[in-house]
Specification:
A hairpin with a 4-residue loop joins strand 4 (about 155-165) and strand 5 (about 170-175). Helix content is about 35%, strand content about 25%. The model is unreliable at about 110-115, about 275-280 and about 300-349 (pLDDT under 50). It contains 6 helices and 12 strands. It has a 6-stranded antiparallel beta barrel. A 6-stranded antiparallel beta barrel has the order 6-7-8-11-10-9. It has 2 domains: about 10-65, no CATH class; about 110-310, Beta Barrel (Thrombin, subunit H), CATH 2.40.10.340. This is Cell shape-determining protein MreC. InterPro entries: Cell/Rod_1 (IPR042177), Cell/Rod_MreC_2 (IPR042175), MreC (IPR007221), MreC_beta-barrel_core (IPR055342). Belongs to the MreC family. One of its GO terms (cellular component) is plasma membrane.
């Protein structure tokens, strides 16, 4: 008896066609504008599934929050109000210091540095296996995200955006085997490249000569080379240094400071628009920047909030009439002490 329907192609033939199609997609991925647009369209289309898969966790979080004891909420509310008052007082002082700093820079004829703007994003899904270290966040093209944008958390650098949809973006983590980031040792300004190993707790420092001064416990920060990551952000801590006499290069591994395995919220960084055109900072400048940031963290300054300063706001904030000029400088009191040499020159004039 003959079957009503024709037989399906053999399994081996289907596997062969699937392999050919996969190779064709891999070779054509990112090569043409049509493929980039197709990837962006598919990322946008799949974004709804991410939100749908994340719905149970959101519902459970809401239910658990509603079951919290009322007394505990009142205590937390009281503590938060006190902290808010303190932060508001600090912000008032910060605004005053910022205006004063701008005026002093004008007096010194020094260019203003635009503040980095940061925005919080939430992790929707994560893919952290040996060959793929990526996460998807709920910030997309509509929120201003762009390909190549650096992403950090409260401890250090996480990675950079590699694909952008309308409402979601895909972030390549620094631990991915295809990722590399230029870093430098904070202690002695030695620059090198930190590459991902596929493990969430390890980075590899390749092509480092044995004679380089690097030790276990050294802090690695971004150097600013390449113009992708702003300088001075912590990246990792050197965990192991092995110098084999038969090998010209040392074997160095480092542990990322960011909690790669426990990511929930991240910070998207919008750096200065002229960052790619600016001159690369010297190692000493990077060291000073890191030390200032560490000092601010010790003082309890909230680094997650940042102010956006544009040229229009600078014009409204700074009034050139308030800047002292040689004509309206305060006169010196006659009773003030004057150096004898200066007094002698003044008498001669």
């Amino acid at each position: 008896m003959k079957p009503i329907f024709s037989k399906t192609p053999p399994l081996g033939l289907r596997l062969f066609l699937a392999i050919i199609a996969s190779i064709a997609l891999i070779l054509s991925d990112g090569q043409t504008n049509s493929m980039i647009k197709a990837r962006s369209f598919m990322e946008t289309a799949v974004g709804g599934l991410y939100y749908l898969a994340n719905t149970p966790r959101t519902v459970l979080d809401n239910v658990s929050e509603n079951l919290v004891d009322t007394n505990k909420l009142q205590i937390e509310n009281k503590v938060l109000k006190e902290q808010l008052r303190e932060k508001n007082a600090d912000l008032l002082l910060l605004d005053q210091l910022k205006v004063e700093n701008q005026r002093l820079r004008l007096l010194l004829n020094s260019p203003l540095r635009t503040d980095e703007y940061k925005k919080i994003g939430e992790i929707l899904t994560a893919e952290t296996d040996r060959y793929r270290q990526q996460v998807v966040i709920n910030q997309g093209k509509n929120d201003g995200a762009y390909v190549g944008q650096p992403v950090i958390d409260e401890k250090g650098v996480i990675g950079q955006i590699i694909s952008v949809g309308e409402q979601t973006s895909r972030v390549l983590l620094i631990t991915d085997v295809t990722h590399a980031i230029p870093v430098q040792v904070l202690r002695n300004d030695v620059r090198m490249i930190a590459s991902g190993t596929g493990r969430s707790d390890e980075l590899s420092l390749d092509n480092v000569p044995r004679s380089v001064d690097i030790e276990k416990g050294d802090l690695l920060v971004t150097s600013g080379l390449g113009g992708r990551f702003p300088e001075g952000y912590p990246v990792a801590v050197v965990q192991n240094v092995s110098r084999d006499g038969s090998n010209y290069f040392a074997m160095i591994s480092a542990k990322p400071l960011a909690s790669i395995e426990r990511l929930r919220y991240v910070l998207l960084v919008w750096a200065n628009e002229d960052m790619h055109q600016a001159k690369v900072s010297s190692p000493e400048d990077v060291r000073n920047t890191v030390q200032q940031r560490l000092a601010n963290q010790e003082k309890g300054v909230d680094t997650k909030k940042a102010l956006v300063t544009n040229s229009g706001e600078n014009k409204e904030t700074i009034n050139t009439d308030d800047v002292p000029s040689p004509d309206n400088l305060p006169e010196m009191n006659n009773n003030d002490q004057i150096d004898p040499e200066l007094k002698e020159h003044r008498d001669e004039d």
